[in-house]
Amino acid sequence: MKRFMSIALSSVLLAGSLAACSNNEKTSSGNKDGKMSITWFDGSWENPVPEPGNEAVKKLDEKFNIDFKPQYIPFDLYNDKLTVKMASGDIPDVIGTEGADTNYVKWAKQGAFLPLNDFVDKYENFKAIPQSVWDAVSIDGKIYGIPLFFPASGGKKPVIRQDWLDKLGLKMPTNYDELEKVAIAFATKDPDGNGKNDTVGLGLAKGIVYDPAYGAYWGNSWYHKNKDGQLIPGQISEGSKEKITALNDIYKAGGIDKDWAVKEYNEVFKDFNAGKVGIWYEQPGTEKGAQPNNLDLATLRKNAPEAKIAAIPAFQQPDGESGYVFGSGYYRIWMLSAKLKNDTKKVEKILEMMDYMAKYVPAAEQKADNEYFDWTMGGEGKGYNIVDGQTEKTDDYSKYAPLALFNEKLGGFAVGEKVMEDYEKQSKSPEAKEFNKIMYGMLSKSNFYISPVGRIHSDVYNNKMAELTEYASNELTKMIVGQRPISDWDKYVNEFLDKGGKEVIDDVNSLIEESKIEGEWKKAE
Amino acid sequence: MLKSNKLSDKVFDYTNIILLGLIALTMLFPFYYMFAVSFATYEEFVKTDLLLFPKTWVLDAYEYILGSKEFIRSLGVTIYVTVVGTLVSLLLTAMMAYALSRNILGQKIYVFMVLFTFVFGAGMIPTYMVVQGTGLMDSLWALIIPGAISSFNLIVMREFFIGLPIDLTEAAIIDGANDLQIFSKIILPLSKPALAAFGLFYAVGIWNSYFTALLYLSDPAKWTVQVVLRQLVILNKSNLLDVGMQAGMDNPPPAETVGMAAILIATIPILIVYPFLQKHFAKGVMLGSVKE
Fold first, then answer.
1. What's domain A157-325+429-447's superfamily in CATH?
2. Quick check: A418 and A73 in contact, CB under 8 A?
3. Superfamily of domain A36-151+329-414
4. Is B42 on the interface with A (CB under 8 A)?
5. CB < 8 Å to A51, chain B
6. Number of A:B CB contacts under 8 A?
7. Is 50 exceeded by the pLDDT of residue A12?
8. Which of B219, B235, B243 sits opposite A51 (nearest CB)?
9. A306 phi, psi to nearest 5 deg
């Protein structure tokens, strides 16, 4: 045994020294041919995923005189690899993430990212970023990442089968009572006229997705206050109670799919496209409204030729307001490695690149003779074509277009929410144009509530809220299907508070008070 | 099988056949379903609750898949890695198993070291660091070398070699053969059934490698078919709870019909290996079970 131990130990030592050797060799990575090398690791929505060393990378190398070494992973798998990379200390110069989540805060606090406060005001496109978005990516006043634009009024919004409303002589619902009536009529009065009882009034999927909240008052964002004047999560609010009561009524009357509690939301998209669902959700966006596996008007019309949809405006709230919840206003963040602390030149080069790629070209100016547009899109005939005055990405877009290595260009902070007008123009299919027009028509007239919770970073919230949300979603599901009586509401609220909800509320409120921000309404222009 | 004419035996037999047949059907059904859906139109798939026999048969899904350069390329990568990986794994496993089946110096220690990794693994991050430190990152060898020898397969193969009569080896030594010759000319030919069985285990394992490919390979051109398949079948959706569910980005995959066709195409190559190895495989399982 003694001999065994000595062999085992010496082999461990040997392995250790080998590892040390190879580590030393690697630290000297840097400038190749006098060019600055920039490593970049991010998720991607492009399909196919851009490959390192493709045409687009070469264009960037040339333009910025760098040796660009990017690496992309499809976003749904990205976090798995990122976690391993960060844990093993293999940190690239630029790291992407989808949002300021628990890991972002954790890694920032551990010092993995470079604070960018001294740099950001030098760049044109970053100057347009609103304070609420800077707040979201800052921790203790330090900016740890560059946020990318996402329209805050976008996101999944409810749509209804207008042709069903017309056929049954019903009006667009404006409160939960009317919603109940409409949903039940959709399910029981054979709106598709096929003589079969095969329709569902209100689409709903596992985990109460998408939340049938027709305004901030009924949603899960922090809108309500408790009797101590503290903001509370929507799940335990009076609005939520009203919503769950209505859902329970609709469920009892057969207006919601009996299997909804175990149904994945993509199944509901399928049912909607088959013409079997009356109320469901989709978000505005280029080509949205005409994509298989999402809401797809083209497929819907093949199954129900007379189908017409409308967006449901937010309901009037008891406090006199009305409007949906404003999103965070950004999607995706780029962080810089803290290792670049003494390499100001490189930091500036990276930010210059990010700033350059962040500029938005409005749909009306998207032409081949616009040099910037042509270059970012990979050149006419290679990365894109202009068909009937409109930009169409080619199948090889992600090979040629430098933009594919950066973002989806959903707009820019300088243009703001108005970018949603362009979604109609940019969409190829007539169904997507129609859908975006309907959605923008509703959203441009809607008010929006800006929640203060997205602008602070509470560790207690990050640690506990996921579990609490799941607990609430389970209990509320039980209430909708009648397994738990709604008369249990106060008991449920207390359980929520006891499970850590109280601590989350205390911490969030003290942070909100400290940073002197409040929930506010953004009125329609 | 022994034949018997008793009624009770017949009833027992038929019940067995029907029951096992039903169980087999439940396993075959998903394949049939994928087959049926892959030939259907998307409109029909959406409209029908359970599509068993498409009214119109179309090849759109297959055209899409076979026209996808990424998919075909990844299939090629997977076939390459599987063939090379299986050969490397078999060779290394057989060599080590054979050596450990003989009385060599420190045999027990080596066997213990193998057994140790059988029980305790290093985990993902240390393994990642080893792969990185040894320069395998972004090389297809990263899919082959770290898992080249499965300790379980090694132990079983070693038992198999121990079971071979020592007389054969001794006779070969008298004829003047060296260790390498004994291994390659006598032991390996005698072990074909075992090699076929373990080859199949390794091949299926490598064919299905997915997370290692994602973790160690940064160039999408080197991704295996499973990674690409996932993109075709599963909704690439946001990880963010609030953004993803209510307001975020998602990248819907092509229609389900395409997904089903992709699964079938990615499964068939490894599936057709089975019948060829089947006879060896059955023999391999039987081998050594009866002492003469």
1. Periplasmic binding protein-like II (3.40.190.10)
2. no
3. Periplasmic binding protein-like II (3.40.190.10)
4. yes
5. 219-221
6. 129
7. no
8. B219
9. -90, 5
